[in-house]
Amino acid sequence: MNTNVFKIDPELTKSIKKFRTRRSKNHTALLIRIDEDNLVIEEDELIEDVDLDNFCDELPDVDPRYILLSYNRVHEDGRLSNPLIFICYIPEGIPTQTTMLYSSAKNLVQNESLINGKALELRDATDFDEEWLLSQI
């Protein structure tokens, strides 16, 4: 599928810019969805103070999302870092068309988010916890 068929909502672009420049002492997630009828990529929800071990409860069971996660990490030497992580959440058991839609727009959303590096793939929301996240980054 050609990514030119997708439109990025201008409000999402503003939200991403604001998300990238914010400073928070807590984990924060920006959830992004695709309006499948209009092929518009748009903000779904901003979740502040994310509890990584219970984050799976915030994710829809049958609807894919792109997740921008601001992860506050304390290193073994005491340094603090705040990496931005891109996660593509496509739950199993959804229609093939929806899977293809989200898979084909993944690079577009990641590029719009200005997040370099690999995109993490999440198929089962219950797998998401801090241990899983640390094993992926």
Automatic annotation (TrEMBL):
Gene3D superfamilies: Severin
ADF-H domain location: 4-137
Key word Phosphoprotein present: no
Pfam families: Cofilin_ADF (PF00241)
GO molecular function: actin binding; Arp2/3 complex binding
Main location: cytoplasm
Swiss-Prot/TrEMBL keywords: Cytoplasm, Nucleus
Superkingdom of origin: Eukaryota
Any one Gene Ontology cellular component term annotated for this protein: nucleus
Keyword RNA-binding part of the UniProt annotation: no
Subcellular location: Cytoplasm; Nucleus
Entries under CDD domains matching the protein: ADF_GMF-beta_like
A biological process term (GO) from this entry: negative regulation of Arp2/3 complex-mediated actin nucleation
Similarity remark: Belongs to the actin-binding proteins ADF family. GMF subfamily.
Annotated PANTHER family: GLIA MATURATION FACTOR, GLIAL FACTOR NATURATION FACTOR
Annotated protein name in UniProt: Glia maturation factor beta
Protein source organism: Piromyces finnis
